[in-house]
Structures are given as C-alpha cells and as structure tokens.
# Entry
Amino acid sequence: MAKKPLNIGLVGYGFMGRTHSNGYKRAPDFFPELEYTPVLKAVCGRNEEKTKDFAAKWGYESYETDWKALVARDDIDAIDICTPNNTHNEIAIAAAKAGKMVLCEKPIARTTAEGAEMVTAVEEAGVANTVWYNYRRIPAVSLAKKLIDEGRLGRIFHYRSNFLQDWTINADLPQGGEALWRLDAEAAGSGVTGDLLAHCIDTAMWLNGGIVDVSAMTETFIKERMHQLTGKMEKVTIDDACVFHCHFANGSLGLFESTRYARGHKALYTLEINGEHGSIRWDLHDLNHLEYFDHRDDSLVRGWHKVHVSDGDMPYMDHWWVPGLSIGYEHSFVHQVADFLKSLEDGTVCEPSFKTALETAKVCDAVLESAAERKWVDIA
Ligand SMILES: NC(=O)c1ccc[n+]([C@@H]2O[C@H](COP(=O)([O-])OP(=O)(O)OC[C@H]3O[C@@H](n4cnc5c(N)ncnc54)[C@H](O)[C@@H]3O)[C@@H](O)[C@H]2O)c1
# Structure
C-alpha cells in the first residue's frame, strides 16, 4: 500500500531539532505498519549557512530562514517547534491559523496564559497537536503506567521525583542568547521549574493523576551573570533550584526536587511510587530497567526486582531488536513520531495534547507562585 506523506516543517536545528529529525527518519523503518510516512520537507533557522548545512546533513528537501515563510508554505502539513520557549506561542498560533498540525516542544509555553492561547488556537483550527513530553515513551516508564493502571500497586500513597543537573555552578557562565537562553527567564519563562520539573510533573500526572495544590521553595544561587545579548552583568531571573510538595487528587502525597547545582549529576531524572501492595522505581541513567517490589510475593523471594524492559511484550519493544538488547534516549522521540502518525490514522489524540500539557503549565505556575509568596497554592 502506498504510504501517505506527512510533510514536516521543522523550526530550530539545535538539540531537539536533531532528536526530532532522527525520530522522523527512523520511525518508518521500525514502525513499517504505519499508513503515514514523514517527509523532511523543510527546516527553518535564522542563520542561512547553518540552516543549509543542517538541511543537507539530515536530508531536508529545502530550508527557510523565517518561520513565517515556513508556515505560509502550501507544501507543509505539520510545523514542529524546536525553538526556545518564548517562541512557542507565536509560532504555534500562526501554524494553527494556517491549518497546519502542530508538534511543540515542552514546556508548552512560558506561562499558562500563553499556553491557553495555544490550546484555543489548535482547537479552533481543529488541527492535530502534541507536546513532546518524550519520557512517557521510554518503554520502562510506559510499563510503569501499565502496571499502575492494572492496579498492581493498589492504593498509591507516595510519588517522589527528582531531576538533577550540575552545569550552571560556575559563576562565570553567562546567561541569555544562543545556547544559554535557559538561564534567561524572558526566553525560558522559568528555570528548572519549566525546564526540568515540567517533565517530572507531566509523567507524574500521567502515572498518578491530577495535582490539587502545591507548596514550593525556589532558590537562585548565583544572583548576577553577564548577559550575552547586552554584554553587561545582569540580575539572574530564573530559579536555579526548586523543591515542592503537593497533594494528588487520589489522596497521595508528592515530593519533587530539581536543581542545576547537584555536583556530579548530569541528567538524573528519577521517579518512585509507593502503593499499598508494591512500589516502582525508575532512573534515566539506567533507562531500560524498571525496579518493582510486590509485598505479596512469597517471603523467601520478596524483594526489589530489576526488570530489564526488552522483551517483545513490553511497550514498544516488539519494534526493536531481540529480547535482552537495550535501546536509548533517542528512541523515546521515535516512539512519539510513531504514536503521532498512528493517531492521524486512527483519528485519535496523540497525548499529551496541547490541552493536556496545559495542566503541567498550571502546576509550574502554581509552584512559582507558591515559592514567591511562601504559601500553599491551589491548582486552578
Ligand atoms: N523533550 C525534551 O526532553 C527536551 C530537551 C531539551 C529541550 N527541550 C525543549 O526544546 C526546545 C528547544 O530546546 P533545545 O535544547 O533544542 O535548544 P537549542 O538552543 O539547542 O536549539 C534552539 C534552536 O532554535 C533556534 N531559534 C531560536 N529562535 C529562533 C527563531 N525565532 N526562528 C528559528 N529558529 C530559532 C536556535 O538558533 C537553535 O537552533 C525548548 O522549548 C526546550 O525546552 C525539550
């Protein structure tokens, strides 16, 4: 059967531009049953030479240097937003108004208000949309979801999650501009809250349901940094670290921590869930394993099991190698591409949709408000 082409227009050729391009290229090979196939139609970046190089290297048919020109093209079906957070709102709304499907990197936007406008735009236009909270699609995390939904843990009491890094400890590191936009709240919206905790919150609400209220503290350890765009020492406006606790709607308690000041940790995303019958634990540094404890096991063998998530009956794994062989970080993006294509075929929503991702934005905003005002904040 001839495949239906899905013409992709990618905006931004940085870190995520590469992971997504790899996803579009790999998905048809490993998910051959899909009706749609992505076509790398055009990439957009502001620097013509670098954009042209990226297009040649990754196999894009053409390039643009202004995202508005990309959005205006008749031969583009879907706009994929891989640019800093301050650009998501404008590009997504323009794309939706032009009738394009929109795939947007996380967080959906800098604030809930910006994100809500994007939800309205895609819903009014009736276009397919998704936000790249890719950790849901790491097979071990997807397996955790299956085990929880089957009720194996019983009533949930605790959800605990960390995202730890150490790359901003040096006080001489500048802020803002190319590559360092994450240190500038104007471009990023917030620091670790929107960048790292947003991932933890999305996974948490997917696995354990909605969050009702939060109490948080944030800290900015280095108060001033040289701003790359002005060349001057300027106040640092992001949160370097954030710790919050919360109530989930199911009555369980949540505890979350993220920082870029945890010496020795590069991207330590961990989660643990404790239920009445058992517990689950996962760690990004060992992403193919899911640790599982079931109190109902025979006492002679009761203990933490380290499940290697590689068998063909584990989520996504029948599309890869043979049991016992591992996959990596990049596969979570291949899986999101495959799920997006499947959702077009089935006429379903590829979660998290913009609407779902807005719930994470609401929690992030409440966390920042709670920290700023030193009080509990209900999620709107
Ligand atoms: N899902 C994940 O795990 C994950 C990981 C990293 C980043 N992200 C998200 O992806 C987005 C991009 O992050 P990144 O790490 O790829 O950043 P990056 O700095 O590596 O790349 C951003 C790219 O956008 C380009 N750009 C900026 N403004 C532009 C404009 N107006 N028009 C066209 N291009 C423009 C930059 O030149 C650069 O090529 C952010 O929203 C970030 O939060 C998600």
In short: The mean pLDDT is 98. The first helix runs from residue 15 to 30. The radius of gyration is 21 Å. Residues 11-16, 44-46, 67, 82-85, 87, 105-106, 132, 134, 179, 195 surround nicotinamide-adenine-dinucleotide (CB under 6 Å).
